[in-house]
Amino acid sequence: MRLLRRADSVTALCAAAYTFGAQVPIDEAAPRALGWLRRLWAEGADHLPFVFVHDLGFLLLHGARFRLRSTQDLGAWPEEERAGRLAYEDQALGRWLLDERVLQASAAINGLAAELRDAAIAYALRLALEAPLRGADLLIGNAAFLRELEAEIVEGLRAAAPPDEAWRRFAFEIRDTAIEALPRGPLFSLADLWELERFAALPLESTRLALRALQAVRDALPPVHVAIAGRLKRLAQEIPVEDKDSDHFPAGGFDALSSQGRMENLVRSEVAYVDTEIGGGLDLFDLRYVLGELLYYTRDDSPLLEARRVFTFVIDQPARLRHKHKGLPAQTLTLVEGVLLRLERDLSDIFGARAVETRWLWRAQTSEDEAAAAEEEALLRQLLASALAHRRVRLSRLDPEAAWPSGRCLIFSPMPPPPKKDRPEGVWMRVGDLAWILEEMSYTPLRRETLDTLLLRGLLVR
Fold first, then answer.
1. Which of 339, 337, 317, 326 is nearest to 433 (CA)?
2. For 391, left (φ over 0), alpha (ψ -120 to 50), or beta?
3. Which of 72, 130, 243, 296 could be cross-linked to 265 through a Cys-Cys bond (beta carbons 3.0 to 4.6 Å apart)?
């Protein structure tokens, strides 16, 4: 680890500017790029090199308007530096320019209010570069030195005097070391883009970390297997003949005509075309069959099959679930909500988003529970914004004195289930320990088998 000394700060940063690959007027570049660098170093990303902060920062700011320095300065570069400078543009800047997610991040940042863009660029730089460059042998900066010497550094950058040979070699070495440490795939993950698109609504780092933890739990769980999904869909499509409204709906018979269907559903009048010869040993029936012009009756399915299915998730005493077992990767409450986010997505995949409504209820028994529920609801409103807008998801409270919901209901609670006479209809999952308990059987929280059990026992088979 190499620490940047105060006495070398101005010289080192001016030498780094000599290696820049972005073509940006120095009057714009100097104060703005130093502002990003100061923010990043102050927040702990003090290993990020100035050259990357400057070049990627302006690429995010300018997007498709970004220009490489070689378009203007190629002829002025010393012969011995050209290959290295062009390699940097090809291996780093060129890849970023062709990275669709970088351009999506740029669009998200430029869609923000002007006063938020510099903070969003600094945050995007952290998302893209902090972890990949953490183990590289780079220069460790000091935000205090940067604040103290900023005016002197800006003056040196505007002077644009070439550094001496030793500092020039050192600046190129830092740049090349950083290039080697760059990830080979997309620079931003989908979660990164999601955060940048909602940067204005997520001003606090703690909020962004909490949302990232929820998404990590959700995405760690694989989607429902196609075989399980097919089984669940078949079970759910059985006509509920005991439904109180079932006698109001037709179930069976024919309701329309179609040019596709089974032979047993053929419209009887089509038989009239049999033996109506058209030559070549064919009759008109054969021709209409080949051309797909025969008519068939279509079956009248019960509208009950298309009814919107409502599923209820209850989180009991959320404040008590805000603890982390040492054998689990996150707080119990985070695991519960991550599992429910995965289940909500599974249900949409199985039945279609428009055919499913999920109701999330927090059962708060204390003021601490109420505060926890309010905070968690605010987080989930960000993750479920689209579903909420289309009324596919509802977030609410359950009065502790009210009866438990009936029907397709899944309850997560730190308490054991009530006695049988008081037990709600839904499935009761006791959580809070290393294993979760359902009807005296233990389940691992982050296993697909656990979610399949919940779907089969609690949400569909009724």
1. 326
2. left
3. 296
